[in-house]
Amino acid sequence: MLSGIRTGNTARGDAVIVGSGPNGMAAAIALAAAGMHARVLEASEALGGGTRSAQLTLPGYIHDVCSAVHPMAAGSPFFKTLPLGAHGLRWVHPPAPLAHPLDDGSAVIVERSVRETARGLGPDARAYGAMFASLSGRWDDLAGDILGPPGLPAHPGLLARFGMSALRSASALARGRFRGARAQALFAGLASHSFLPLEAPASAAFGIVLGALAHAVGWPIAEGGSQRIADALAAHLRSLGGNLATGAGVRSLGDLPPADLVMLDVTPRQLLSMDGGRDNPLRRRLGAYRYGPGVFKADWALSSPVPWRAAECRRAGTVHLGGTLEQIASAESEVAGGGFPAQPFVLFAQPTLFDPSRAPAGRHTAWAYCHVPNGWQGDALAAIEAQVERFAPGFRDCILARHVATPATLEAMNANYVGGDICGGSNSLSQLFTRPVVQGVPYRTGLRGVYLCSSSTPPGGGVHGMCGWNAAQAALRDLRRAA
Predict the structure, then answer these.
(1) Which of 97, 143, 160 is CA-nearest to residue 465?
(2) Do 381 and 402 contact (CB within 8 A), yes or no?
(3) Helix (H, G, I), strand (E, B) or coil at 376
């Protein structure tokens, strides 16, 4: 799927890329590899967009500002083509990708092995193996079809098998495939990464993909913090002759230097504010683009590891906190309806158990967020910490310092996080496959030579770079046709 540029698809000229998130960097790398002079403009003083790290709490404690755990990067066809290890990127793999503790003091553990994971699911062992063994074993084939640009699949049988389950609601699939509460709860947590109510069509797709990734490539973290991903991408772009500028915000497309191609790692809302009211035939449809729930995020500096009641949780880099399928589904449904649940579903990461470089000796960091309505102005910290305490009594006693980020905080840090939506737009079925608008080439903006390459385009959110790579391929094809 990524062979086009590497087999002689060359182009000349200048390209300007707005935004240095993984998708903007992917677009820049693709264009530079094709022979164009690529220049990245980043509004922030730090590169990376969602892949950034900073000392948010105390000196010496490194926290990931947004994304922290990277199964999509490890399984991305784009990332696999790059020599990022030569530029300092090291993946750290916890012994277990994921833990899901329950109120009885036990935890469901997702191991790298499908078979080992299934053993902990009792009566659902065979059903779990049937769901994930073949998909994880053929992840590279599946990734080419679900992460590539819209078009005819290379593996139609595999994609059809995936689609028959993926298009269902997570609740229906979990109850239909699994008999026990443990497997149902595990799948509910995986599917909640969709930011959709678990009764929504296609919410199951996210659970299937993330479960398959756990077995195919793991759920790694970047040694030293997610900033290392951005730094490695920047180093590779420079090796191709590209350059980057920080503190270079773009308010209007008219302010950009002359270029043959403009790639925008922004959402439709930013595009419409930048195009200066031009006669854009897509303007009305782009204005109807919908954003999804936001997040409320917390980071902690800790005096010791989290005191999980289920000790095996210390083997996992990521912990899903929400209890049963019914409890998680209720929480996500309340968020979708504009409310905030008393017991939100919490995504929790504990990187320093496996990467001690992020904190002083003997100390630790933790990262978590819960879903909230878009633009929500409340305070979810107490509810998040209560969910951690529910499964790790004494957690609050370990806290040395806290840092919180509200939806407004996140949007101020990164304008793409509209209302705290870190996915670049709602993942509802009506928008999942047609983002940002219904048209043959979804990356075109209606403005000549200007393309969207953000997570508001296929295949959507996640640190995988494929939106940028796909958009660059489309732009290069158009450029060659014009020439």
Answers:
(1) 143
(2) yes
(3) coil
